[in-house]
Amino acid sequence: MDWKKHITQDSTVIKDALQALDNLGQDTVLFIVNNQNGLVGALTDGDIRRGLLKGIKLDDPVLNACNPNPKFIREYDISKLTSYRKEKLKMIPVVDKDSRIIDIVNFRIAKTKLPVDVVIMAGGKGRRLQPLTMNTPKPLLNVGSKPIIEHLIDQLAYYGISDIKLSIQYLGEQLEEFAKKKSNATLKISSTWDKDELGTIGSLKLIKELKQDYVLVCNSDLLTNVDYERFFFDFIDHDADLNVLSVPYTVNIPYAVLKMEENNVVDLKEKPSYTYYSNGGIYLMKREILKFIPDSVKYSATDLIEKLIQLNKNVRNFQHEGYWLDIGRIDDYNKANRDIASGKIKR
To answer: Which residues contact 74 (CB under 8 A, 6 or more apart)?
Structure first.
């Protein structure tokens, strides 16, 4: 959505505003700004209809018919935005400290507007997926009608992510081309080359254009329906330094398991199941945490987690109980295509 199409000046006349609303299609609301681009009102077809019934004219300024007290959030009050979504409001402008509109959240398109920078690690060679990855990087293998990484990006966009960085290496030119084609007026995708293969987290230090206080890092080979809003609020509510998304992994023992004390059997469990929580390849961290990642050294996400634990940082586990699949092997890739075809994965 090009949100700037929803902005009009306070000098606009109602006749012209009607035409602008008609051009917008189903998202029929205009936000009115003054000559300093400050938010001063909102206008819908209903506002105009009620105004005409009260005697305003088509050549009158929009200020004569608008709602002078529109709902808005300041950048980025996610809790208030969530409350507006629950009120069934359709569009909410985001304003800066001077009340100038810097964004508009359309709940038809996006659930929220998370204030995070996103980095997708997309440089792996995908050796276990050969021969599929001989000439195509793993993130660009199609699952259903679109590449693995596009499923991930579309899911992130649903949570209001508008700026995504790719860390690329193997067959990176293809990912650069994908990024150019996928980018649009509301979604910017850029690429950074990890020529030294710095591992699953090391290349974060190569990215210089991080603007937000929080960084979301995702592996590029994941198919999942993670609720990134819940993930973010869990992180904020517990003042975490780093949140690790975890997924359940159940081990079924086909035999009775004995509990013993000094070779004496004191208990047994018949064919028990044990559930462990494994690293899900998605991390949310404070931007300041990046200072603990060494420069120009191969460094994995587990290296960083171990370092933060040693420093007594708040490393938190977020348990994801929904769909999650790491597409690392041919069997996983085939399962992903079956699951997409059957509609198993949903937001």
So the answer is: 94, 95, 96, 97
Is this model's pTM higher than 0.85 or not? yes
The pLDDT value given to residue 209: 85
Distance of alpha carbon 317 from alpha carbon 312, whole angstroms: 15
Q: In this predicted structure, what is the pLDDT of residue 203?
A: 94
- 221 in the same domain as 285: yes
Q: Which of 32, 104, 99 has its CA nearest to residue 61?
A: 32
Report the greatest alpha carbon distance in the chain: 94
Cβ atoms < 10 Å from Cβ of 25: 8
322: number of CA atoms within 13 Å, CB side? 15
Name the residue type at position 177. Answer: E
214-224 pLDDT, tens digit per residue, is 999 999 999 99
Domain tally, the chain: 2
What SS3 class is residue 181? helix
Determine contact, residues 93/39, Cβ cutoff 8 Å: yes
Amino acid at 243: N
pLDDT at 347: 65
Same structural domain, 161 and 70: no
| pLDDT one-digit tens code per residue, 6-50 | 999 999 999 999 999 999 988 899 999 999 999 999 999 999 999
211 found inside a domain: yes
Amino acid at residue number 137? P
111 assigned to some structural domain:
no
107 has pLDDT over 90? yes
Distances (CA, A) of 155 to 35, 184, 251, 262: 37, 16, 30, 53
